Amino acid sequence: MSVMDRLKKNSRVKDTAVLKDSVFFTEKDMVKTEVPMVNIALSGDVDGGLTSGLTVLAGPSKHFKTSFALLMAGAYLKEHDDAVLIFYDSEFGSPQSYFESFGIDTSRVLHTPIVDVEQLKFDLVNQLEEIERKDKVIIVIDSIGNLASKKELQDAKDEKSVADMSRAKALKGLFRMVTPYLTMRNIPMLAVNHTYQEIGLFPKAIVSGGTGIYYSADNIWILGRQQVKKGKEVKGYNFVINVEKSRFVKEKSKVPITVSWDGGIEQYSGLLEVGLAGGYVTKPSMGWYAKVDQNTGEQMDQKYREKDTLTAEFWEPIFANTNFKEFLKAHYSIGHKPMLEIDLDEVIEEEAAGG
Predict the structure, then answer these.
(1) CATH number of the domain enclosing 212
(2) Which domain range does residue 101 map to?
């Protein structure tokens, strides 16, 4: 018996294996959503998507955080017919119709109301203990930012107004405990969170809850938005996913997504800005767009209004007949050398402003 075989046999950890054969590295689901730029924000690849581990969706109120979580959860349930969604709820702002709008069968959702961090910790760890790796489960917490600590609640009952120093510690303990389970059980967990503005000359958005969330998360998004108006009427929002932390995507990347009141998330939104920045699409005049022939570099004859670029008919030929997918991967994903230098931030800001 070799040294490796003896060591493996002697280990008291049942999942011990030779690294090249370890299921934690060789068997990892990646669930693709229907929105290419969401897949980019998750994995740096339009054909990638959601994997196991903790993804934090942070931002101010009304920034579509729960909707992005349900979009990903819906894709997971669609990918796995036997999958279950555990929905930890502290905000109670998502009626059944909201789940159904993302194609989620509510009979496959286990709704668990929670009032404090400790209650979440105890129930979540208990659930993770019972889940096996072969089980298909996705977890959504809505939200971490709105959860009090048990001490804070007890102080309120006792009419004490002392500052609560236990919440950050409780949250750090929670994520420290659950992170290994998520990888070992192959479970994606989406946590909705709040942000606050750092005090200083150049304030920036900070994810609430302390350092534990930063240490444990595989992905952290900070969501920003700008209004989309027709005249004086607000028609929706241009969101920007700011990638604060990622295992796959270059940190500080900005991923544009459009959401309208009547149509929800625009499936092909965000691609136009990147297509313009990379020279796959051009803007010959205000309000009009055209594709670029990648062989000649010349603008093609047919012109499109912006709404007509938000279709599969517009983008599928570009994906199929150009290196646009590789361009996106090179720009966003870790480990790829950029094919050319572009200022995507500038293009996003110009398009949002209608320039």
Answers:
(1) 3.40.50.300
(2) 52-217
pLDDT at 11 over 60: yes
Q: What pLDDT, in 10s, does the model give residues 52-98?
A: 999 999 999 888 899 999 999 999 999 999 999 999 999 888 888 88
What's the pLDDT tens digit per position in 119-128?
999 999 999 9
Distance between CA atoms of residues 151 and 224, nearest Å? 32
Does the model's pTM come out above 0.85? yes
Phi-psi domain of 333 (left: phi exceeds 0; alpha: psi -120 through 50; beta: other): beta
How many Cα atoms occupy the beta-carbon half-sphere of 27 within 13 Å? Answer: 9
CA–CA distance, 283 with 289 (Å, rounded to integer): 5
Chain segment 92-128, per-residue pLDDT in tens = 888 888 899 999 999 999 999 999 999 999 999 999 9
Count how many domains the chain has: 1
Q: Strand pairing partners for 288?
A: 285, 305
Strands 288-292 and 281-285, sheet pairing: antiparallel
Tally Cβ neighbours within 10 Å of residue 281. 24
- The beta strand positions in 96-164, using DSSP E, are 109-113, 137-142
Name the amino acid, one letter, at 32: K
**CA nearest neighbour of 46 among 332, 341, 337:** 332
253 in Cβ contact with 224 (< 8 Å): no
**∠73-77-82 over CA atoms, to 5°?**
145
| Structural domain contains residue 208 | yes
Whole-number Å distance between alpha carbons of 56 and 194: 10
Q: Is residue 232 part of a domain?
A: no
